[in-house]
Structures are given as structure tokens and as C-alpha cells.
Amino acid sequence: MARCYPISLVLAGRPCLVVGGGRVAERKILSLLACEARVRVVSPILTRGLQAMAEKGQIEYRQGEYRPADLEGIFLVVAATNRDEVNHRVAREAMERNLLVNVVDDPPYGNFYVPAVVRRGALQIAISTDGKSPLLARRIKEELEKRYGPEYGLLADLLGEIRADLLEQTVDPVKRRNVLTALVDDQVLRLLAAGELEQAKERVINAYHRGRSEP
To answer: Which residue among 76, 83, 115, 155 has the highest number of C-beta atoms inside a 10 angstrom radius?
Structure first.
């Protein structure tokens, strides 16, 4: 099996199709909505949660069985029914149109895998075994969740703000790189690991101002 290429997709405003209306489909839909995707759902029935989303206009819902016309204008597809023959058909017809498609619980039939992800705000750590062992990926995810708490997401947000300001204010690329490198030194990471978020943030801010003032 060929190795997979890791990638992060920007789905904001992109039309995504989920075929299926059960609990697995609901989890996938929630993750797409979290990325601000425009989600269309095709299924004979929906969970109560999905029905509520449809009534609020959070998702576009067509009641019924999947048909090829559902793929028109779609960027990404998730096949999440409890019928293999339907999922495989969705995947085949999506790939014939060069669409991205994931088959839940049977990813080799699609053309991309969804990794296990640890999310801490803007920080995302993805773990994938290229579909060989989802259980191993899940175990590693559980270990990383213990290692990286929410403070890492808060620091990532701060670093993002500083980086944006630095890119705007500092023309010299060498100085810019040196300042950015100094922002996350070993001491900052040790402070985070010890739960000292405020001290870590203070060290980052001081390093930023010190780097900006140096010739």
C-alpha cells in the first residue's frame, strides 16, 4: 500500500456531503461544522441531533437514498451509512469525479483517511497509521492527550498573534526567524509541562520584545 501524504484542509465555506444519518455520521458532521464547512446530508432518517440541526438550518438535508446527483458541486464526501454496498458505491462514484472521499470504518475504499487528532485550540496533533492500525493511533492519541493540555492551545494562539505582528513589522527575514525561534525555547516548554502557563506566556512576550529591540 502506498504511503499517505499528511495534509490539513481548509473547509470553511466548502460544500461537503455526508451520506448517512446515524450516530457515526453525526460525529463526522460535527467535525465538519467545526471547520465551518457547508454540510449537506443525504439519508432516509436522521438522529435526533441531526434532525435538530436540519431544523435550525445548520445543515442542508435531503431525505432519501443516495443518488449520483448528490455529488454535484461537492468538494469532499463522507460515506457513513451502515450498508457497505452503498458506501462503496458512493466512494466509487465520488472518485470517478475526482472528489475527496472517506469511507467510515472502511477507509481503503476511499482516497483519504481521517487521522486520530488531539485538539488544543489552534494546535492539532494528528496520528495516522495509514489505515493499518486505528487502535494503535487511538492509543497514542490517549497518551498525547495526557501530555498536552489546553495550555498549549492558549500558547499557540499567543504565538500566532505575535507571529502576525512580526511578519508585518519586521522586514529582515533572518531577524524574523531568529525572533520566532527564540519564542519557544526549552524553558517555555518546561514551564508549560509544569502547568505554569502565565510564566510561559511572560517568557514568550519578553523574548519577543527583546528580539524586536535588538539590531
So the answer is: 155
Instruction: Tally the domains of the chain.
Output: 3
CA–CA gap between residue 78 and residue 58 (Å, rounded): 17
> Is residue 10 in a domain?
no
Domain range for 182 = 150-213
Pair (67, 108) in one structural domain: yes
Burial class (CB in 10 A: 0-12, 13-18, 19+), 186: exposed
Q: What's the pLDDT score for residue 92?
A: 98
CA distances for 23 relative to 51, 88, 106, 200, angstroms: 12, 19, 16, 40
* Residue 9: inside a domain: no
Q: Which of 70, 56, 92 is nearest to 19 (CA)?
A: 70
Mean pLDDT, the chain cut into blocks of 10 residues (215 residues total): 87 98 98 98 98 98 98 99 98 98 93 93 92 91 93 87 81 79 82 85 83 67
